[in-house]
Amino acid sequence: MGNIFNQTPASLSTLSKAKRDLALGLKRSPLFSWRYGSHNVQQLMLVPRDLRTADPSLSIELDMGQFGLAGATVFLNGGSPFQAEPPNTAWLKELHGFSWVRNLRAARTDRAQEQAMELTREWLTDYKTQKGIAWEPEVAARRLISWLSHSNFLLYEADEKAYINLMASIEEHMRFLSMTGMHAAIAFTDFSDVCRALCERTGEIC
Fold first, then answer.
1. Measuring CA to CA, how many Å separate 169 from each of 12, 51, 72, 180, 206?
2. pTM score > 0.90 for this model?
3. Cα-flanking dihedrals φ and ψ of residue 73, to 5°?
4. DSSP codes joined into one string, 56-77
5. CA dist., res. 110 & res. 114, Å (int)
């Protein structure tokens, strides 16, 4: 997979005009308007670090038709984790929170990145409607943190459509979380404070 695992988000390839136009929309989102309404945001230059221990075996587990989360394992029977019967609410929340992306990244293989991108694309297609457990504020916040933390992994060599879809969903998550009060009573001085505040509110380690 080349040097993706040594890259920083800032070292991604130059954005095309369509990508820049989409990224510029981030500055109009509520998250940035708290402190950054006048900034010309063109791409994700700073993302929170995911400091949690990763399990690189998840990629192999998925190929074996299993998905273990929250202490429970689901047998996929050739299907998608998102279509499987969840064993409990905790498993379902972790699935939609995307914290498992760090485990696929830790595998450091092309196959693991393909799995991460496929599952992300599936989620973006099937869960646009803001309802259910997938869109509970803390679950959405965890998902946003995960996407930001691993954006260079998820978007490495992504085509135009994949890039635009994920960036648009990131902006949608920012707007959604602002409306649900995840930012209430928090004063931010820079973007890292935004990420840190979301981590504190959701119990994540960043």
1. 19, 24, 28, 16, 21
2. no
3. -115, 135
4. TTHHHHHHTTEEEETTEEEE-T
5. 6
What is the C-alpha to C-alpha distance for residues 119 and 142, in angstroms, rounded to an integer? 16
* Joined tokens for residue 75: 């047998």
Question: CA-to-CA distance for 151 and 148, rounded, in angstroms?
Answer: 5
pLDDT at 80: 96
Task: Give me the phi and psi of 115, to 5 degrees please.
Answer: -60, -45
Tokens of 193: 């404070």
Contact 150, 101 (CB under 8 A): yes
Q: Count CB neighbours of 36 within 10 A.
A: 17
- The secondary structure of residue 12, as a DSSP letter, is S
Q: How confident is the model at residue 50 (pLDDT cuts 50, 70, 90)?
A: low
Kind and range of the H or E run holding 140: helix 137-149
Give per-residue pLDDT as tens, 94-123: 999 999 999 999 999 999 999 999 999 999
Give, to the nearest 10 degrees, the angle between helix 160-179 and helix 17-24: 0
Return the half-sphere exposure (C-beta side, CA atoms, 13 A cut-off) of residue 129.
4
Of 54, 36, 38, 58, the C-alpha closest to 46 is 36
CA 134, 57, 86: angle at the middle one, nearest 5? 30
CA atoms within 13 A on the CB side of 106: 15
Nearest to 143 by CA among 176, 170, 110: 170
How far apart are the C-alpha atoms of 48 and 67, rounded to whole Å?
A: 26
